[in-house]
Amino acid sequence: MPKKHKLIIEPDAKEMFHEHLRFLKRESHSAANRLVSSYRKSVARIADNPFQFPIADELDLPGIAPNTYRKCLFESRYKVLFRLEENIALIIAVIDTCMENVGALPFQLTIDS
Predict the structure, then answer these.
(1) Domains in the chain, number
(2) Do 23 and 75 form a contact (C-beta atoms < 8 A)?
(3) What is the CATH number of the domain that holds 43?
(4) For 44-88, what is each residue's pLDDT tens digit?
(5) How many CA atoms lie within 13 A of 94 on its CB side?
(6) Contact, 77 vs 97, CB < 8 A?
(7) Which pTM was predicted?
(8) CB 110: neighbour CB atoms within 10 A?
(9) Could you give the 3-state DSSP secondary structure of residue 50?
(10) pLDDT band for position 2 (50/70/90)?
(11) Do the domain assignments include residue 21?
(12) Structural domain containing residue 16
């Protein structure tokens, strides 16, 4: 059985998820509950086998090494962005794809040399 990857969720990614959750709670508690459940399942799947998720080609930005980031789509409109570092899956963002603007990410992506 393959070894699970250690999961690290960056503080910015946690805050992004909580922002989405706060918004949904104002609209629908059941939708918020579905979001939490789906997010937890997605994060567990990333830890189990991060290679099952496609490369995040939309992050084709100057200074970012190709194939650095992967994406996990969940709840039909949300995306977890992560990268792999040895046996660690590092979650860097949780994005609402309906409001996606990569240039507006609230942090600086790590630039590989």
Answers:
(1) 1
(2) no
(3) 3.30.2310.20
(4) 999 999 999 999 987 766 667 778 899 999 999 999 999 999 899
(5) 22
(6) yes
(7) 0.82
(8) 14
(9) helix
(10) low
(11) yes
(12) 6-99
